[in-house]
Every structure is written in structure tokens, then in C-alpha cells.
Design a protein that fits this description.
Blueprint (H helix, E strand, L loop, with lengths): L1 E7 L2 E7 L5 H6 L20 E4 L2 E4 L12 E3 L8 H13 L8 H13 L6 H7 L10 H17 L6
Parallel strand pairs: 1-5
Antiparallel strand pairs: 1-2, 3-4, 3-5
Helix pairs in contact: 2-3, 2-5
Bound molecules: FE2/S2 (inorganic) cluster (2 copies).
Length: 161
């Protein structure tokens, strides 16, 4: 076991973890943050995408011990964040999900695209989503939802904020 200290969704945590434990497995159990989904478990599908120190990463390819000292943010950690609020509303309005398996990672990736100003066109959004696979092939509505949320975010915080 290896001792680590990290911050997950704003909470400081000290823990002992096996050296080969992935961050995704660590988040899902024992931390019970099951909004981080596991699909391929080898870096292809993007379902496990979360933020480490503000950057999207594949948590299935990231070792928990490598996150010692890091800030980790999962889908459970966005609360009333105005961009995430706009995305949730747009995904709901536009039917941007079917089974929902890809949705947490789609939302985190979309949040990152909007935050970096990389969601200005359908082409830009589709390129930005290239690493996130939706097995329900719901891309048309997902892209429309992200485009709508990007416009809403540019206008300012929604009422919920
Ligand atoms: S589960 Fe991590 S990329 Fe597919
Ligand atoms: S909504 Fe089912 S995998 Fe995307």
C-alpha cells in the first residue's frame, strides 16, 4: 500500500492505496463516486473522463498513486457550476442521452470545451468529443445540446445560479 493525499471534489483525503489501483477504481470504490463510468478500461471509450488539476484525463489509465497532491473533480463535484447547469438543462431539453452511460464523461468533456472556448461550432464540438464514444450513437443531440449550452454560458449564469 502507498500513502496518498489528494483533494476530491473539494474534500481533502488521506488514504492508503495499492500501487496498481487505477484512479477510476479508487473513485468508484472505496470512494463510492460511481458517476465515473468504466467502459473499455484501456483508454479508448472516454467514459471514465474526469478532471485532474483541471485537465480531462482517462481515469482508467491513471494510477491513484500518481494523483498524490492533485485536485480531482468528478461529475459529482460540479454542484451548481453555471456551465454545468447550462449543460444539464440543454442535455435534458435536447434529449442528449439515451442509456446515460457516456453522459457523465460527455458532460465533463463538454464543460472543458466550453470553458476553453472550443465549442463555437458544430465542427469544433465534434472534434472536441472525438475521444468520447456514445454506444447509443446519440451524437446529433449531444452536439446540439453542447452548442446550446455554450451559447447560454456565453450569455451569463442561468437563473439557477
Ligand atoms: S473506460 Fe477509460 S477510456 Fe474507456
Ligand atoms: S447515451 Fe448510451 S452510451 Fe451514450
Amino acid at each position: 500500500m502507498t500513502a496518498i493525499r489528494l483533494t476530491i471534489n473539494g474534500t481533502q483525503i488521506a488514504d492508503d492505496v495499492p500501487a496498481r489501483l487505477s484512479l477510476a477504481d479508487y473513485l468508484r470504490e472505496p470512494r463510492n463516486l460511481t458517476g465515473t463510468h468504466l467502459g473499455c478500461e484501456h483508454g479508448v471509450c472516454g467514459a471514465c473522463t474526469i478532471l485532474v488539476d483541471g485537465e480531462p484525463v482517462r481515469s482508467c489509465l491513471t494510477l491513484a498513486v500518481a494523483c498524490d497532491g492533485c485536485q480531482v473533480r468528478t461529475i459529482e463535484g460540479f454542484g451548481s457550476d453555471p456551465v454545468m447547469t447550462a449543460l444539464r438543462e440543454a442535455f435534458h431539453r435536447r434529449h442528449g442521452l439515451q442509456c446515460g452511460f457516456c453522459t457523465p464523461a460527455m458532460l465533463i468533456t463538454a464543460h472543458d470545451l466550453i470553458r476553453r472556448g472550443r465549442a463555437a461550432s458544430e465542427t469544433e464540438i465534434r472534434l472536441g468529443l472525438a475521444g468520447n464514444i456514445c454506444r447509443c450513437t446519440g451524437y446529433t443531440n449531444i452536439v446540439a445540446a453542447i452548442a446550446e449550452a455554450a451559447v447560454a454560458a456565453a450569455k451569463g449564469p442561468p437563473d439557477a445560479e
